[in-house]
Amino acid sequence: MPQTRSQSQATISFPKKKPSHTVDKAKSSSDTKLELTNAQAILLSPCAKILPLSPRKRLGDDNLCNTPRLSPCSPPKQGKKENGPPRSQTSKGRRLVFDNQLSTKSPSKREHTRVHQNKTHSSVPKGQDITTNSEQRCPLEKEPACLRLFKQEGTCYQQAKQVLTTAVPDQLPAREKEMAVIRNFLREHICGKKAGSLYLSGAPGTGKTACLSRILQDLKKELKGFKTIVLNCMSLRSAQAVFPAIAQEICQEEVSRPAGKDMMRKLENHMTAEKGPMIVLVLDEMDQLDSRGQDVLYTLFEWPWLSSSRLVLIGIANTLDLTDRILPRLQAREKCKPQLLNFPPYTKNQIATILQDRLNQASNDQVLDNAAIQFCARKVSAVSGDVRKALDICRRAIEIVESDIKSQTILKPLSECKSPSESLVPRRVGVIHISQVISEVDGNRMPLSQEGARDSFPLQQKILVCSLLLLTRRLKIKEVTLGKLHEAYSNVCRKQQVAAVDQSECLSLSGLLEARGIFGLKKNKETRFTKVSLKIEEQEIEHALKDKALVGNILATGLP
Ligand code: ATP
Ligand code: MG
């Protein structure tokens, strides 16, 4: 379920930049919206001396300018010559003086100050307003003037990404009809103590699993007297492994033996025993149970029709005609045929509605502009109607804008800062960003090797790609579980002194890499069992990543 703003948000932490690096970057970056060529800052306070702002030392967080705990005014540096002349001296050279607050609070000092704000503001491009830190007010009551450099934080991007995850949401717009059918089916069979089966089919990302999960969660609150068993057949080693897996869920204990006649008999006895709750058995990715002779599938579909069966079976798969084509014998036994429900691919309007509904949960000030939503919806509906892809594309497009914005630092007097509750969007995600992501996925499966795209490839994703490469090399297998990958990735992060993200965020990053065509994912009910593989050649990754110092280092050092 997408988390709302109030819920804790997973954040990706990046390594703390070295001060020298930051200064250089700020100095050279064309994005830095700071021009202090002819200016010098003077901060006035009744209790402090004039503290000139040293632009080169006040960029970013490194000099604690943006640290909320501390006074937003500059730390005392009177002792140091290079930090500016004492208050009584006539200032020479570069000065930035801000008097908009002095004019009301400290008029007597006005003659000592001059305003050079125009210079500052003229460097902020239109549409790139200033985002504020979470704590903007000057804690010193008598402080007349506060001036700070703001790193564009862009918390709005985090929030938007959070609501665009592929977790099961509270609301599933555009699936009202399908959900009503499933809900009625379950109510009728559970309340009427009637065994039966339902088969949900549809292309990937059409909401089959999400709708059923949502309904089961709701019904648990509403109805009593039924037990739910949900199995993702993708996680099973073989089709026959479904029986011990069911037995394990029923008995709540480890069942390691292969399914023998004894186990089958026990299972059948359990399902048909007079006493006991109705059993709702959900077999997701059911087409994985394809076996020679289809014995497994036949057995499962026949269970509800055993006399006094308590089983309500729900199968989910992509194949539209699984029961007709693969299980022709069911045709002959009319009563064993499951009720069918197909989930058609989402249309353009439906995808746009879903995206809009999610974004409404983030904030009123929308991160994606309307044209971008429509464009994404049109592109995805034309290819697959897979809303999972649409969500991934939007998150990736937000990431591109976010990393761009985060690299900018701008200067602004505190008096103009908006309250932290106001969510300003420094720059909206537009059609161009969506188009960039789509062309990365469609046209160029390895955007890392492109000059322009390289910078927008986030650090955590680079580390994840390297970790998967190292792991598959070490284990000599093509596919690893997300749990193992996360372990390896955390070790690499520790070694590189980079904060690691948690397992669920790791899954989200893997989704983005899947959207870029770099990772292949096979989902599993349990996050840690999701299978991850590399979709591009090893040499291609190495070649593309090695020119980055960090990535080269990770690959050369290997797994800890
Ligand atoms: P697959 O066949 O690949 O398993 P699926 O049909 O089961 O695909 P889901 O897992 O249900 O697809 O959907 C993927 C994600 O897309 C969901 O977890 C949910 O976040 C989102 N989603 C799908 N349909 C909707 C919807 N109608 N409204 C909001 N979000 C949706
Ligand atoms: Mg599914």
From TrEMBL:
Q: Where is the composition biased (Polar residues)?
A: 1-12, 120-136
Q: Show where the AAA+ ATPase domain sits.
A: 194-333
Q: Which UniProt keywords apply?
A: Cell cycle, Cell division, DNA replication, Nucleus
* A Pfam entry, by short name: Cdc6-ORC-like_ATPase_lid
User: Where do the segments described as Disordered lie?
Assistant: 1-32, 52-136
Note the CDD domains from the entry: AAA, Cdc6_C
Q: Where in the cell is it found?
A: Nucleus
> Which chain positions lie within coiled-coil regions?
none
Q: What name does the UniProt record give this protein?
A: Cell division control protein
Q: What broad taxonomic lineage does this protein's source fall under?
A: Eukaryota, Metazoa, Chordata, Craniata, Vertebrata
